[in-house]
Design a protein that fits this description.
Strand content: 15-25%
Structural class: alpha/beta
Bound molecules: phosphoenolpyruvate, manganese (II) ion
Shape: elongated
Number of strands: 14
Number of helices: 11
Largest sheet: 8 strands, parallel, barrel
Length: 337
Amino acid sequence: MIIVMSQSATKQDIANVENKLTELGFKTHPIYGDIKTVIGAIGDKRLLNIHAVSQMPGVETLVPIMKPYKLASNELQQSPTVIEVGDVRIGGNEIVVMAGPCAIENENDFVETAKKVRNAGAKILRGGAFKPRSSPYAFQGLEEDGLKIMVAGREATGLKLVTEVVDTRDVELVNKYTDIFQIGARNMQNFRLLSEVGMTSKPVLLKRGLSATIEEWLMAAEYIIAEGNHNVILCERGIRTFETMTRNTLDLSAIPAIKEVSHLPIVVDPSHATGNWKFVPALAKGAVATGADGLIIEVHPNPPCALCDGPQSLRPEKFETLMQELRLVAQSVQRTI
Ligand code: PEP
Ligand code: MN
């Protein structure tokens, strides 16, 4: 339910309504707009005494939220969510590019790659320290040693970090090092993990599940927001289809579809979407043209020797050329990179 407060409602009126809702067993999520405040009330609607709440001073009207995802829906919040990671803003006019290797392999390569992607214009450094591999025998990541190398990359470049957390037991550890949590496609419906990162205050990059519908994806975002962490960035990374020429099928229509129903920012991962570095530039440009708020791209100094996802990784020089091309596409949709 959305409680719309009138323009003349005082701070005390808003606090009284919130207290009343809490007393009735609801979780409240106030959104303070320039003109009006609205309060999202999440809970069992049978417990809501609509008459009592609607009669309270300062209450203008009560509107039910029809969508199954409530806090992620733009029925509750119309203005787009802009997530601040230091001085980087995700969801504003600037398209934010995140780049780096699939997995962190060693400090020297990581720091060198970090400098190159920064010089090319990336704002966030990616790298996996915990890798969710399809095979238990494949490289699983350097774990905490990898996180320490990431920090060296941040110190050398000033870039913010995004890295994946694969298990609830690691949330506290990863939280000590990263600026943004990544929840991978395979964990999109790991509800305990979603709730756990929802209890932190760090932004969460939530990848779309391999065969998740947009509604299931938004419901996963809802798990995070319901715990009080509103800083969710959605990431379209391709879905499973019958097609085998590409690793996945990039669903670019998810971008306008998400914008239609949600206030959350959305970024695109053309690397996992295609599995082939040759296709990455075209899809990155397509994502910018279709309204993505950012990109996350795998870059490796020597892809044939990469321990993970070499075939889809761009060399730093190719990444730099792509960044130049992306600026032109961004300009044509009145955005910057
Ligand atoms: C990754 O970013 O390296 C990764 C494993 O991605 P996804 O979860 O989208 O497969
Ligand atoms: Mn990867």
